[in-house]
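Lab meeting, item 3. Inverse folding demo.
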């Protein structure tokens, strides 16, 4: 292999082993004698034209694009990614992979003009390419693995050339079943592997500097000792990963000053995206992403959210997802946020500002959290700093974090199946990609001192939304503090469902909340069983996730969950439950109207008055009427009550306006039948559902200025649960539901926090 001297340090005949040319030295006084004046003969010749032709100033790695020979632009096209030698950043490792996307191309006449249309076909990867570098040429070969479908044994041969410092292109030839195809002639496009457009919009209340994070890697003292000092932004974070992010210089300002609008819910965020995102209706999937900086979320502990669903695209199941996220500027994390940090608290706030933006955008690339991929100790943007510290010691995450994604995530982002990476492609946590190993976390950690138990009634009616009680219990002899957020959307629990046909699916929430833990103290098991202070329960709805309705077929299901937080990894019991068959012809005929994306999202959002989900609300209203008093009717009515019983704001002409005013009287009327049903029943399986309904109705009574009715219903609930043997700790919690002030429990009652 030739390794000549070259000018500069960018030429890489062998990756990672650059060499330099010794240019002719200047003659003058030195240790060997006095100055010599006048022209002097040189013993070094200037590099030849052949040498300059072979010099390369950039890495081979990057993206190439071209067409297959033979038919010009019509036929087949290739988007080629080479990841075989170092790129510019020290935090951007070489993965030694080759991948690509194949497209079909054709001429289409539109508006009297011929237009070249490019249609995606499939993606492939070479897991172990063989790379040979010479002076002016790179030769790469390997076995091709397609992500989907059946193909004959295929290899690829790629030749990359360069001249006078610049890459001149690559030629790729595929051999399938022993027959070589026509080569693809590809031009060099970029040193990155994919390009993405990011639109950032801002609410008026937080349209302040800094609008985007700019962090100096040395501004906070807790960092790796050898971390290079550099400025890190959203763009540079993804550039390290091999993604060229372009932030749209034009942004929309959403006026959120409407009276009473104190915080956002998921439905309002999703609705705002559909009305504010400039590229939302430009066709999906696409490398387009929308981020919004808002004030507060309804759950004050949430600092960022990726809402993972869409509607309004021609029918159920056809809408894109993974295309929008939000950061909540008025979260306590950002109290000390300033554009130019000078203190450690200010540096911490800017660092967390950067982390939240990059983390939430990462979900749009189909990234699960690190612990959901059996990598709880990963030093990645997709882990939680406090989760890592709980396992490894205080301040260890930032003390070791190098502001990058881990290698497995880079592999997915750079070389994964296009459909599972691109925004609006495969649903989150699905697709043939590298980030969702089915059943990866199904074994409890050794020596766990907490027990996770799932329980529910054994039989659910057809179409009835499934809710399961998640219960944590302390099994040790000392008090135990746990994070009480058990719903999967907070990231502490991972849920697996085995369907009647035997397939196991990962049930992922359509939203992902990033926020502060909610500590709950569990007393020691010894002596606590009588009052229940050793346990904590939540009712979790699992009706609808990113892959649709989880329990949409009659038959036997098995459900298992993994709780991972506070240094604990604990698997639950395996819960069997059965979904019944349609009892009447009416149920069977109504099912197609119920099992739609709009209904599922309305359930998942715990109610929504968005026009984009109006068909779902209509179907739930019809279910409440048709099946009144039955479990399906009771739960459908509750979802409608959650929708109509709260204010709903949406953007109109760049201003958030009240689209729907809370109608607590109607919401109470809708849930009267359900309340009577729970009061008459005696099954312990319905205790949490009964309590949750009374919590909702308490808020509704308060909104209707009827605190006395709210107090009466809470007292009746406490009495009923007491007669059913519920422990004293729970009864004490129930009595706390009685509102102390008329506005105590109203979601919209909190005053808007001023921007810091």
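The presenter then showed the designed sequence:
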């Amino acid at each position: 292999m030739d390794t000549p001297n070259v000018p500069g340090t960018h030429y890489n005949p062998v990756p990672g082993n650059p060499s330099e040319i010794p240019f002719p030295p200047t003659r003058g006084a030195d240790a060997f004698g006095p100055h010599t004046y006048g022209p002097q003969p040189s013993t070094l010749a200037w590099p030849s034209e052949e040498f300059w032709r072979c010099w390369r100033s950039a890495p081979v790695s990057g993206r190439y694009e071209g067409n297959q020979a033979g038919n010009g632009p019509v036929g087949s096209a290739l988007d080629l990614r080479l990841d075989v030698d170092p790129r510019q950043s020290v935090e951007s490792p070489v993965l030694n992979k080759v991948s690509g996307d194949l497209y079909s191309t054709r001429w289409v006449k539109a508006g009297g003009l011929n237009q070249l249309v490019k249609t995606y076909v499939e993606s492939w990867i070479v897991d172990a390419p063989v790379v040979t570098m010479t002076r002016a040429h790179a030769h790469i070969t390997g076995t091709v693995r397609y992500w989907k479908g059946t193909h004959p044994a295929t290899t690829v041969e790629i030749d990359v050339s360069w001249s006078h410092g610049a890459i001149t292109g690559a030629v790729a030839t595929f051999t399938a079943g022993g027959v070589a195809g026509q080569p693809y002639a590809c031009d060099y496009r970029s040193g990155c592997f994919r390009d993405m457009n990011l639109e950032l919009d801002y609410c008026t209340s937080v349209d302040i500097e800094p609008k985007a994070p700019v962090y100096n890697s040395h501004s906070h003292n807790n960092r790796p000792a050898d971390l290079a000092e550099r400025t890190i932004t959203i763009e540079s974070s993804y550039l390290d990963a091999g993604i060229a992010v372009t932030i749209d210089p034009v942004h929309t300002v959403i006026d959120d000053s409407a009276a009473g609008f104190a915080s956002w819910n998921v439905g309002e965020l999703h609705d705002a995206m559909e009305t504010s995102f400039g590229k939302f209706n430009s066709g999906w999937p696409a490398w387009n992403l929308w981020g919004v900086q808002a004030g507060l979320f309804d759950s004050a502990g949430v600092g960022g959210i990726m809402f993972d669903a869409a509607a309004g695209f021609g029918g159920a199941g056809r809408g894109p997802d993974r295309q929008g996220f939000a950061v909540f500027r008025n979260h306590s994390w950002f109290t000390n946020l300033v554009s130019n940090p000078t203190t450690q608290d200010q540096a911490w706030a800017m660092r967390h500002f950067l982390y939240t933006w990059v983390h939430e955008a990462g979900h749009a690339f189909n990234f699960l959290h690190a612990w959901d991929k059996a990598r709880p100790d990963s030093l990645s943007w997709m882990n939680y700093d406090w989760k890592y510290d709980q396992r490894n010691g205080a301040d260890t995450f930032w003390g070791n974090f190098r502001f990058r994604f881990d290698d497995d995530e880079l592999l997915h982002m750079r070389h994964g199946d296009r459909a599972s990476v691109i925004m609006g492609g495969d649903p989150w946590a699905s697709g043939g990609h590298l980030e969702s190993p089915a059943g990866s976390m199904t074994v409890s950690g050794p020596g766990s001192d907490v027990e996770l138990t799932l329980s529910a009634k054994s039989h659910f009616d057809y179409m009835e939304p499934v809710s399961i009680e998640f219960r944590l219990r302390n099994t040790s002899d000392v008090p135990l503090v746990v994070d009480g957020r058990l719903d999967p959307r907070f990231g502490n629990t991972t849920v697996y469902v085995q369907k009647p046909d035997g397939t196991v699916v990962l049930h992922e929430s359509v939203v992902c909340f990033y926020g502060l833990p909610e500590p709950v103290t569990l007393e020691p098991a010894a002596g606590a069983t009588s009052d229940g202070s050793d346990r904590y329960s939540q009712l979790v709805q699992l009706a609808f996730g990113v892959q649709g309705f989880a329990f949409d077929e009659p038959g036997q299901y098995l459900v298992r969950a993994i709780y991972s937080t506070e240094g604990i990894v604990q698997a639950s019991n395996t819960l069997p439950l059965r979904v019944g068959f349609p009892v009447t012809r009416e149920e069977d005929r109504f099912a197609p109207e119920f099992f739609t994306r709009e209904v599922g999202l309305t359930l998942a959002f715990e109610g929504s008055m968005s026009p984009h989900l109006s068909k779902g609300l209509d179907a739930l209203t019809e279910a409440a009427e048709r099946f009144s008093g039955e479990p399906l009717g009771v739960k459908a009515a509750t979802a409608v009550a959650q929708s109509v019983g709260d204010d709903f704001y949406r953007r109109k002409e760049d201003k958030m306006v009240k689209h729907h005013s809370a109608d607590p009287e109607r919401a109470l009327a809708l849930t009267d039948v359900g309340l009577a049903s729970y009061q008459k029943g005696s099954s312990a399986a319905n205790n949490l559902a009964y309590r949750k309904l009374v919590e909702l109705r308490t808020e509704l009574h308060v909104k209707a200025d009827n605190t006395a009715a709210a107090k009466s219903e809470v007292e009746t609930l406490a009495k009923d649960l007491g007669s059913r043997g519920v422990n004293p700790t729970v009864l004490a919690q129930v009595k706390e539901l009685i509102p102390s002030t008329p506005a105590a429990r109203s979601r919209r009652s909190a005053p808007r926090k001023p921007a810091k």
